[in-house]
Amino acid sequence: MNRLAQTALLFLLGATLLHAGLTDLYLRYVKAGLRPLVLVAGVVLIATAAATLWYERRRARGQQHHHHEPRISWLLTLPVLALILVSPPALGSYSAAHTGTALTKPFGFPDLPAGEPLRLGVADYAGRAVYDKGRSLRDRELKITGFVTLDRSGTPYLVRMGLNCCAADAQPVKIALTGRIPPVLSPDTWLEITGRYTPRRTKDPVNDGPIPYLDVTSARPVPVPTDPYDETWNT
After folding, report:
1. 60-81 burial by CB neighbour count: b if 16+ within 10 A, else e?
2. What's the start-to-end Cα distance of the chain, in Å?
3. Which band of pLDDT confidence, cut at 50, 70 and 90, is reported for residue 235?
4. What pLDDT is stored for residue 33 in this prediction?
5. Distance (Å, rounded) from C-alpha 69 to C-alpha 45?
6. Calpha distance 162→146 (Å, rounded)
7. 101: nearest Cα among 162, 155, 186
8. CA 80, CA 86: separation in Å to the nearest integer?
9. How far is CA 139 from CA 23, 106, 136, 195, in A?
10. Model-level pTM?
11. Residue 152 has pLDDT above 60, yes or no
């Protein structure tokens, strides 16, 4: 690989990062708050490619040969091809079934807005149900969206994966379902659940973490959200 090939790869990788950051593609890899860093990285790579090209042309004026870099440099093509050719799905039921719930006690419980139904995130409901004993949830009609996972016994959970930084460190928060559960549930199906708080609890079979139940009154399939990860529990 010569410097010109390196320049082309740097430019292509930078352009790919810009494309990911300007669209929703980056949400498959990192949390939404990191979009500015993705864009900055793309700009830096493109600027580096431009500077490398300028330096190489300047040097080439007084030389008759091209200096070749080690062949291992071609590994730069791998992240480029991965970003261009592969759009990985968000982590789903397999990861959730093999990872214990990451529910932690929130610092506090802000007042919830008035009006029915009340839309909550999976982590918000789970935190209030477990650590606030459902005080703010009682007698409220709730709507919660997540994907389905089943444990080894077939118990259904509504799950949302949360990120600390990127998809590599994603962890699930789970809600167990009871009540009018659909008769057939497929893992990774996204559902909008309407239901009410119940004090019933269980423990995650993976790490014995607390999992609250939700008393389901209705459920309907919904498309995968633009941002499939839940960051509200880690902001």
Report:
1. eeeeeeeeeeeeeeeebeeebe
2. 43
3. very low
4. 74
5. 18
6. 12
7. 162
8. 10
9. 40, 22, 9, 10
10. 0.71
11. yes
